[in-house]
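Sharing a chain and its predicted structure for anyone who wants a worked example. Both blocks are below, sequence first, tokens second.
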Amino acid sequence: MFFFKLPFLNLLRHYGRTSLSLVSIILGVLVIILGRGTITGLRESVIRGEIDGMTGHVSVLPADYPTSGLLHPLDGLYSLPPAAEQWLHANAVAWTRRLFFAPRLVSGIDAIRVRAIAFDPATDADVFPRRDWRVEGRIPETAGDGVLLSRGIARTLSVQPGDMVVLETRTVAGAMNALQMPVAGIVSTGNPAIDSIILFLPLSAGEDLLRTDGAISHVSLLLGRRTDADAAAQQLQELLGEAVQTTTWEKEAAPGLEAQDLRQRFLDILVVALLVMAAAGIANTVLMAAYERIREVGTLRAMGLTRRGVAGLFMAEGFVMGLIGSLIGAMLGAWLTFKYSIEGIDMTALVEEMGSGEMFQDIPFSSMLYFGFSGRTILLAIAVGMIVATISSLYPAMIAARKEPADAVRS
């Protein structure tokens, strides 16, 4: 008890200097917890945006089909054989058909190229949940209901629910076709890759416009566990043959996840810099305390305290500072991380301010950011703070321990 009570009292002698050292430890621990929680949340946001918006856990598409940009060729469309449907019913939690194409959308004298997704109204919501969708108007269920425009398209063309638009595109046979449809609704999904340039329409309307005769471009499915995606993709590939290709959420989300890994490395550099500053502050605090208490050290040595005991006293001061600072930083970080792991942070306004054009066309992610709460990260941050504080007091402790009792008393 003596080895911790005395260092604690000594730290209170110069509470201003001690407070500065504590602040640096608190900031270092706080950055570790909040930073890792944010990066974990951003990674999950990318994954959730890919799974819930574009791919599901696994998607089946034509061989050599492009997975970025506005290229949606129609020459590789396919129909599911009965054996594949049986496999999907037996192994998938949910699955749905989709038809991607890139029509020209005309409203009055204005026209833009968009990405269109013709969906199956009966099954699409089972694979691609709509819990975060905000719809002005309604989601179309039949060809006569019209189209559902993303917020970005509606803003560009200045259209509202009830307005009439025209979809122009080539059919599977290569002929030009057009279809006039009402705007059933305008949607904001919270996924910039969708909200920037995508429109939705019922599958029956897409088949009528493209003359596909029931062929589709995508089948997407959900599994019991997303970690089973690679195995399921391989089984489907073997079942369907070389005419199609399979992809998983992990493959499609890889570029976004690599960006988060880069952010994690920059965060680690920042944490190291903060901890170096904390170590320097603690070393300075303990070193000044060692020189200010030379006579006290001499008296303790004269009373029989060993060099190791003196060194232990000063290292205990660093340990106490590390413990207090780490616990304060950990409590703040844990509270904030837990709070935003439940409530989340709506980044929609930030994304809109950055723009919704080509930047986000191929970067699916959820604009609702939920922090990743991890007890392991909190314990790691506390341990790092305490270790850094204790080690940084080693040199001042050695200086104090070298003093001879007589010299220290006369000093």
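Comments welcome. Residues 58-222 form one domain.
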